[in-house]
Design goal:
The complex is a heterodimer of chains A (441) and B (452). With 441 residues, chain A is of the alpha/beta class. Chain A has helices at 81-87, 157-186, 202-208, 221-234, 251-256, 281-287, 305-314, 320-325, 329-334, 379-405, and strands at 12-16, 19-24, 42-45, 47-52, 91-96, 104-112, 130-134, 213-218, 240-243, 260-263, 292-294, 352-355, 366-371, 374-378. Residues 414-441 of chain A have low confidence and may be disordered. Chain B has 452 residues and is α/β, with parallel strands linked by helices. Chain B has 13 helices and 18 strands. Classes of the chains: A alpha/beta (441), B alpha/beta (452). The interface between A and B is large, with 78 and 72 residues.
Chain lengths: 441, 452
């Protein structure tokens, strides 16, 4: 399923040096090629998750409402097991976003799920960096107040707008200061003192210059239009609206502004601003000309984005291809990486996912996931490795038990602290020192 | 074409019977005119779940019950006939753990009635607080779910303090003007959130994790078990006193009274536990107290499957589309568990443990099938098994003569993502498939194109 030019029955894909070099029905494997027989299986472009928080040591710098000085790249954790789990769900690239505690949040980046590689190898080469914005209940901290503590500004949607406007007013002035300085330097002036760098405003200047994408968390129709107005006023573009659960109400306006919509399949009613969320959102926005993706915002949801995309066929009647685009080509377009990934075409990165059934079915199970032509997940191997893993875990547990008998006080082994808050897993069954499941490494 | 339109078309066919369909009206209003009491669904492939599927079969619904089902059943005179050629008929899906009607918007406490204050509330009953006009009901119904268990005491959700004895869960139909019309059974099970040795707790107000030394956590656990044991002992004495007629109106204790059927083994305890250690502790506790146990959650049931089978304890599983509990678990640990339990002969149902995601019930079961569970077992896990596990198997869950007619007619596999429910019957009455989501869809589908 190429996504760009239909489905090829009994097709083959030739990969060389991580790139797709041929796609078609009558390709001969060159001598020495490693052959993956996928008879009866389904190959799609690797799934791209436009809203993810995996592989990160921290998510929210929530103390201030403009936290543009912090960056997700600084906290990348290549050992996060969720990278492997999502890979096993067919995801090959993900937009790693800062949290939504701030009107203007931290800097974001796109990664490839190259499990086993160091943090430096995760970033998607050449992908434009982004910045997270957030509107509505989260930046105004509606559901997060701590009794006895004063409210943080902003506490209303009015204040959220003011915060963004104020930040961009400063950024515009800051940019002018630097532009003036650079102009004077270029004109040959000597002994000038450069303006002081402002790490908070620099990313916003990049937004103004079109060098950094804005991915804005939002729910309600009014706040969506609010940000479009502010963006217009300051002359920057919003790249994607994230969640955008009421996007269907203002789809024409979003389409006219050329902004992408990255939404959930069927989440609703978990808070007031999600009470008008409908599973038809993706289809309605698509019909009005918005480029729409289905995202996860959750390490587990990411493992079945193919299924979530399929729901847009049931709710709103999108075609098979349109549904598949929601998790392949469309997020690639939204992240500006569609020249590299998102379809199965000659010249693109060999990021592919192989299923045993039509991927838009709840019965489809990922068999292999390839990134840059390399198999990073192989279900058969994973299954085969489990006995070995179990043995290793047992050995480690025994070792720990022995080591613990020596000190007087018996304590269960400390669990490795989780990377980020999750609802409590509720117990402390002693586990062996983390041994990662098998797979690529 | 939307389900709304399809239903609209169908109801127009029924205009003979003066059924008024008002777009935008509440689902129940579509039932405000008397409906025919006899229906015949003909030429359908019928999955009764009480025998092999019937090709080209007829299902007769009469006075709210299944009147007849088979391949050579006559259509009764005066029956409203639905020609279901090319369609399939199943028992409606049964979601065995939800907070239906008890929680509207998760983040707004004013709309949430799942969890009473205090740790021991055996006398509170879900049915008391179920809102029949919750928007979740028609949304859930449209996905083919016809009945649910509404669970108090945290409702099986995570987070917050759900207490220990959470109250009585109620089984309800997903249609009806009042709770009385909706009720299948008011008191189905007593919720017991089994105490855990918690070395890690999560504080949602500060969004931070707290660690507790093991010894301290164990001490707290022991205290809770002693307290719980004390409740059971007092309830036992109270039940004995009741039997002897020695409880005067001045001695009356409604909490102990509510526990009497639990002590007598008449009302099962719905024990929420996920870790193997907690499950083992719970089994031991229920054994000692002679309680009838249903396990709920059960994420590590695979570690105690032999124990559960030997004790004949069924389990209502949390969604398999969940991350494994431990970092070093296989990535598909929860997805492959149902297949493992089926092979081991453990009886189980699959439930959503939610409201908003109740409509993913079929998807959950399908995913279990994708990871090795035989298909018919997947279907049973969301229909007949929950009915049997909750003691309602004689009334509901299969398409057999005399059972309550909660029936769905679909254009395909009800577990598959893209299948549409065409007709849905609850208590033998055609229920609307329209809901808030359809209404908003229709409204904004028809928004005039704006030019800017």
């Amino acid at each position: 399923m190429t996504v760009s030019h239909g489905t090829i029955e009994h097709g083959s894909v030739l990969i060389k040096d991580g790139k797709i070099t041929e796609v078609g029905q009558s390709i001969k494997a060159p001598a020495g090629a490693q052959v993956i027989d996928a008879s009866g299986q389904f190959v799609i472009p690797g799934i791209i998750d436009c809203h993810s928080h995996i592989a990160a040591e921290a998510i929210n710098e929530g103390s201030v409402s403009v936290s543009s000085m912090v960056s997700m790249e600084e906290v990348l954790n290549p050992d996060d097991i969720d990278i492997y789990r999502d890979l096993a769900g067919g995801v090959t690239a993900a937009n790693i976003l800062h949290g939504s505690a701030n009107s203007i949040g931290g800097q974001t980046l796109v990664i490839k799920l190259r499990w086993g590689q160091p943090a430096s190898k995760l970033p998607f080469e050449g992908a434009l960096p982004g910045i997270k914005f957030a509107l509505g209940e989260n930046p105004k901290r509606s559901n997060f107040s701590v009794p006895g503590q004063p409210r943080r500004y902003p506490a209303t949607r009015m204040g959220v707008e003011e915060t963004i406007r104020n930040a961009f007013s400063q950024a515009r002035d800051y940019k002018k200061t630097w532009d003036d300085y650079n102009k004077r330097v270029a004109a040959g002036e000597k002994n000038l003192i450069p303006p002081r760098r402002d790490l908070k405003l620099e990313p916003l200047v990049e937004v103004l210059e079109g060098k950094r994408y804005v991915h804005s968390h939002c729910y309600r129709e009014d706040e969506i239009l609010m940000l479009l107005r502010v963006a217009k006023e300051f002359g920057f573009k919003v790249r994607t609206f994230q969640h955008v659960l009421e996007g269907y109400k203002v789809a024409d306006e979003i389409a006219a502004a050329g902004v992408g919509g990255s939404t959930f399949s069927d989440w609703w009613a978990y808070k007031v601003e999600a009470y008008d969320a409908i599973p038809y959102n993706a289809a309605l926005m698509t019909r009005r000309g918005v480029v729409v993706s289905i995202n996860s915002d959750d390490a587990e949801e990411a493992t079945h984005l193919n299924q979530e995309a399929a729901k847009s066929m049931k709710y709103g009647g999108l075609s098979h291809d349109e549904a598949l685009k929601m998790v392949t080509l469309n997020p690639a377009i939204q992240l500006g990486i569609d020249k590299r990934v998102g379809t199965i075409d000659v010249g693109k990165d060999a990021d592919l996912t192989i299923y045993n059934h039509d991927p838009l079915s709840a019965y489809a199970v990922v068999q292999k996931t390839l990134i840059d032509g390399r198999v990073y997940f192989d279900r058969e191997k994973d299954l085969a490795n489990r006995a070995e893993m179990e043995k290793e875990k047992k050995a480690l547990t025994e070792k720990l038990k022995k080591a613990e008998k020596k000190p007087e006080e018996k304590k269960p082994p400390e669990k490795k602290p989780e990377e980020r808050p999750k609802p409590p897993a509720s117990s402390a069954t002693p586990t062996a020192a983390a041994a990662a499941p098998g797979g690529a490494q | 074409m939307s389900q709304v339109r399809r239903l609209h078309g169908f109801l127009c066919l029924l205009s003979l019977f003066c059924i008024l369909y008002l777009p935008g009206a509440s689902p129940a209003q579509a039932q405000s005119q008397p409906q025919p009491s006899v229906y015949a669904i003909t030429h359908a492939k019928i999955f009764t779940l009480a025998g092999p599927p019937i090709e080209d079969g007829t299902l007769v619904i009469r006075d709210g019950k299944i009147g007849a089902v088979g391949s050579s059943v006559n259509v009764p005179a005066g029956a409203q006939v639905i020609d279901a050629k090319g369609l399939q008929v199943y028992p409606g899906l049964f979601d065995a753990v939800t907070q239906m009607g008890l929680s509207e918007i998760g983040a707004v406490s004013a709309t949430v009635d799942t969890t009473e204050a205090g740790s021991y509330n055996p006398d509170v009953v879900a049915a008391t607080a179920i809102s029949p006009s919750s928007e979740h009901i028609p949304v859930t119904r449209a996905s083919g779910i016809t009945e649910v268990l509404a669970v108090p005491g945290g409702g099986g959700g995570r987070g917050g303090d759900p207490g220990i004895l959470g109250g009585q869960a109620s089984a309800i139909h997903l249609a009806g003007w009042t709770i009385d019309e909706m009720l299948i059974k008011k008191s189905v099970a007593m919720v017991l959130n089994f105490p855990e040795i918690q070395t890690q707790t999560f504080d949602f107000t500060t969004f931070s994790r707290r660690e507790k030394p093991y010894a301290e956590a164990k001490q707290e656990y022991d205290r809770q078990i002693n307290e719980l044991t004390d409740w059971m002992d007092r309830a036992r004495h109270y039940a004995q006193a009741m039997e002897k007629g020695s409880v005067s109106k001045y001695d009356r204790d409604v909490k102990l009274e509510a526990l009497a059927p639990v002590i007598r083994g008449e009302l099962p305890v719905l024990v929420f536990a996920n870790r193997a250690r907690d499950i083992r502790n719970a089994v031991e506790f229920c054994d000692k107290q002679k309680l009838k146990m249903i396990l709920a959650g059960g994420e590590e049931t695979y570690k105690v499957k032999d124990l559960l089978r030997s004790k004949d304890i069924p389990v209502i599983l949390r969604p398999m589309l969940s991350l494994p509990l431990d970092e070093d678990d296989p990535y598909d640990r929860l997805l492959s568990q149902p297949a493992e339990l089926a092979a081991a002969g453990v009886k189980f149902a699959i439930a959503s443990f939610d409201n908003s995601f109740a409509r993913r019930l079929g998807q959950q079961a399908a995913n279990a099938v994708a990871y090795g569970l035989p298909y018919d077992q997947g279907l049973r896990a969301v229909t007949v098994n929950p009915a049997q596990i909750l003691g309602l198997g004689s009334q509901i869950g299969t398409l057999e003569q005399g059972k309550i007619a909660n029936v769905i007619v679909t254009n395909g596999d009800p577990l598959e993502l893209t299948t549409d429910v065409k007709y849905l019957f609850i208590r033998g009455q055609l229920a609307s498939l329209e809901n808030k989501h359809h209404r908003l869809y229709e409204k904004y589908l028809n928004r005039p194109k704006t030019s800017n």
